[in-house]
Design brief:
heterodimer, A: alpha/beta, Aconitase, domain 4, 7 helices, B: 419 residues, Aconitase, domain 3, 2 domains, five-stranded parallel beta sheet, 18 strands, 18% strand
């Protein structure tokens, strides 16, 4: 886990709701692999996200990312776009559970909401992210940020690759 | 240790130590999905290698969102849910019998005081009004709960909200919860339980209490709990589908925060686009034109909501440039409204009445907005594009303000229509 991830930043504001991440119009889609094409379709100024996002890019957001609905589509559409981690000041409870259950990390980064507002981290900046330490370097702007660690149970679920894999492994261990 | 209601309910369902912030493995009393979150849950259930749900009478799928099937894709989703439900012999109701999940389940005694209830729907917090720790989760969590009959919960900190004073006749549960969200913001109770108290709460009917709890999630809350009182227990006993034991918060419980909202001089509240925290007194939004009015949803589609709307609409006409959609949240509500003559009032006013469904609330069907249109809605979310075009707008309000605005053709205090 000490690997350093490198990629471009896509920067969003506070209170990005699940309709902005994955609009209700596409809820009849059931194959997660088809979901990235709809990501952030109606986010003002990010309508080009789905077309231009590259695997390895990061989603950076302020407070309360993923507020609103329980739809897991909002996790799948980023996971299957190849975004390795969401970096946010905080995220909604349901979004957080959905992310962990899909083996998908969200790093809570103190101060990033203000940093976004102050222009210290911008669209297209090159980031280096070390998940094991939570260190985030914005190579373009020169600013550095620090993310929190997750709880043991949450980490175990993520390490297993998601809730179902974790439960299967637990059941197997009991036998 | 003195416990909040959330802590006390979790403690009855776990062997782990219970304190705010700790993670507990808890047993689950009831777990449900809808037609949107059902298919992914079924996929995860299979992926886990599970064969049978833990108890078919405690596991349910309610096809309420895109039902009656609005297109081929939603027909396929509902079909997948139906087939799984029949295979598992679990609870499932067809159109004509099902209602909007958060109205239907309490009516049928399937969510009861003291229970832990999980729903793959963010508005599962509605059932906090039953004195149940009810919370929304994603499909994967729900699938695991179906298989195991348990889940993990982080014990939430609790914010105590007391509603005091005596409100005017124009105030309902919706105004009370919007006032709170306006005050604390959409992140104000993130990962916390809200626990509602106070003199004004005690006097509220059950329908209005469901409205309060329903929007806890709009402040980021895990659930919106209300300690059972005699009114609630009576309702639960009359309808219960199984045995239950109510649980109460301790008198000296420790809360992470508390605040009081005085409803005495409260004006009806509205939430302007595009976040539920953009709350104003209705007088500050008055005159804003509306193309559509929606009265319904898991927030305000119950009988007392329809009665309040009918009181305003009686003998009046919906403005010629405005359309009014009325969608009762369940068939029990539908039949009761019909018996009481409310449908005559709505039809005479020029409203459309639809079969129970989530309908336009989440942009599904039965009243989608075009670019540039504005809807005043009794539902719970006004995000960008929530009811259709990303260039449309949703304003949230209670049923009296919504009905008055339908008559005026613009946002309007109900007292002006009744003057």
């Amino acid at each position: 886990m000490s690997e350093i991830l490198k990629g471009r930043a896509w920067v969003f504001g506070d209170d990005v709701d699940t309709d902005l991440i994955y609009h209700n119009k596409y809820l009849a889609e059931t194959d997660p692999k088809n979901m990235p094409q709809y990501a952030f379709e109606y986010y003002p100024g990010k309508e080009h996200f789905a077309k231009e996002v590259k695997p390895g890019d990061f989603v950076v957001a302020g407070k309360n990312f993923g507020c609103g609905s329980s739809r897991e589509h909002a996790v799948y559409c980023l996971k299957y776009a190849g975004i390795p981690v969401v970096l946010a000041e905080t995220c909604s409870r349901i979004y957080y559970r959905n992310a962990i259950n899909n083996g998908y990390p969200v790093l809570f980064v103190k101060g990033i909401s203000d940093a976004i507002k102050q222009g210290k981290i911008n669209d297209g900046d090159q980031l280096e992210v070390e998940l094991s330490t939570g260190t985030i370097k914005d190579v373009t702007s020169g600013h550095e940020f620090h993310g929190d660690a997750v709880s043991d149970l949450e980490n175990d679920i993520m390490q297993a690759g998601g809730l179902m894999e974790y439960l299967k492994a637990q059941a197997a261990a009991k036998k | 240790m003195a416990m909040t209601l959330a802590e006390a309910i979790i403690a009855k369902h776990t062997k782990d130590p219970v304190e705010a912030g700790s993670i507990c493995r808890v047993s689950v009393d009831f777990a449900f999905t809808n037609d949107i979150t059902g298919p992914p849950a079924i996929k995860e259930f299979r992926k886990m290698g599970a064969k049978k749900v833990f108890d078919p009478m405690r596991c349910a799928i309610l096809p309420d969102h895109f039902s009656p099937a609005k297109d081929i894709a939603s027909a396929e989703q509902i079909k997948e849910c139906r087939e799984f439900a029949y295979e598992q012999d679990m609870l499932f109701w067809e159109v004509g019998r099902v209602g909007v999940e958060h109205a239907f389940l309490p009516e049928n005694g399937l969510v009861l005081p003291g229970e832990i209830v999980l729903g793959a729907d963010s508005h599962t917090c509605t059932h906090g009004a039953m004195g149940a720790l009810a919370t929304g989760m994603g499909s994967t969590d729900l699938a695991a709960a179906w298989a195991l009959g348990e889940t993990w919960l982080r014990v939430p900190e609790t914010m105590k909200v007391s509603y005091e004073g005596i409100p005017s006749e124009w105030i309902c549960g919706k105004d009370m919860i919007l006032a709170l969200i306006g005050k604390i913001g959409v992140e104000g109770a993130r990962y916390m339980a809200l626990e509602f108290h106070g003199e004004a709460l005690g006097k509220l009917g059950l329908d209005d209490r469901f409205t309060l709890s329903n929007m806890a999630i709009e402040a980021g809350g895990k659930t919106g709990l209300i300690n059972p009182d005699e009114k609630l227990l009576q309702y639960a006993r009359e309808r219960k589908a199984r045995h239950f034991e109510p649980i109460f918060a301790d008198k000296d419980a420790v809360y992470a925060g508390s605040l009081t909202i005085d409803v005495t001089d409260m004006e009806p509240q509205v939430a302007m686009p595009h976040l539920p925290e953009n709350v104003k007194p209705v007088s500050e939004a008055a005159g804003t034109p509306v193309d559509q009015v929606f009265i319904g949803s898991c927030t305000n589609g119950r009988i007392s909501d329809l009665r309040s709307a009918a009181r305003i609409l009686k003998g009046k006409k919906v403005h010629k440039k405005t359309r009014l959609m009325v969608i009762p949240a369940s068939y029990e509500v539908y039949r009761q409204a019909m018996k009481e003559g409310l449908f005559d009032i709505f039809l005479d006013a020029g409203a459309a009445i639809s079969t129970p469904s989530c309908g336009p609330c989440l942009g599904g069907h039965l009243g989608i907005l075009a670019a540039g249109e504005r809807c005043i809605s009794t539902s719970n979310r006004n995000f960008v594009g929530r009811m259709g075009s990303p260039k449309s707008e949703v304003v949230l309000a209670g049923p009296m303000v919504a009905a008055a605005s339908a008559v005026a053709g613009h946002i309007c205090h109900p007292k002006e229509i009744m003057a």
